[in-house]
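Below is how a single chain appears once it has passed through the pipeline. First comes the sequence as given, then the structure the pipeline wrote out for it. We keep one example in the README because the format questions we get most often are answered faster by looking than by reading.
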Amino acid sequence: MSAVEAPLPASERLSLRLVVNLNAVLHGRLAAERAAAEVIGDDVAHHLVDPDGLLGLDPLTATELDDGFAALVAAEPERWLLALPVPGALAPLRGPVALNTAALAAGEAAVAEGGSVALVPHRVGQAVQWRVHAAARPFAPPTLYEAERELSEAVLRAATTLTHLDVASGTRPRDRGTALAPGYPPRARLAADRAARLLAACDEALATDGAAITLHEAEVRSRELRVVRTAAGQALCAAAGWPEA
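Resulting structure:
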């Protein structure tokens, strides 16, 4: 995905699929072969591109995800984290610059909690390439409780402001749900579904000026929606963080 393309619905984020299935394997809830198949889904193929040999894969050729999945499991024994960075809000990414730039362009990344590696997906037709990047140890994500509270507060503030301005119009996106892998508790599933719905709603709303008439109204509306979108992204990252969240 290039920086100018519309973001994917949260439920279709490739990094979300990879993170939750890797975590399910790490916690003994899913076999690696099944997890790799879940990540690939309906795509023709997924490949790992490891030009610096960070995972010990052949740096000169792409490795099929099925064959390289064990290297991902071995690279991070605790948990993988989801990153949905936007300008001004890169957490949990801590760098280096090459990783942050690639993740911002894609709008997503999967990063090992212990650092060392991160993966950024790129669609190539009906296939996907996962580029392996060196990664600094990421910032600790908020707890699910903290992320849910921040999201609720952001939604309340935005609703109050936008209702007062009467510029909150927008189309409610179709609810596709968010598929977390086996092992995730009901609370994490509910939090992920809510966060994904709000992300999609904000993306839909940000595509227009709604009922805004003046430039000031449009700017306020956009600012409030982006605050909610960032909080929803953090809540989705917290929910995906690991099965015992």
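The first strand starts at residue 45 and ends at 49.

See the next section for the split statistics.
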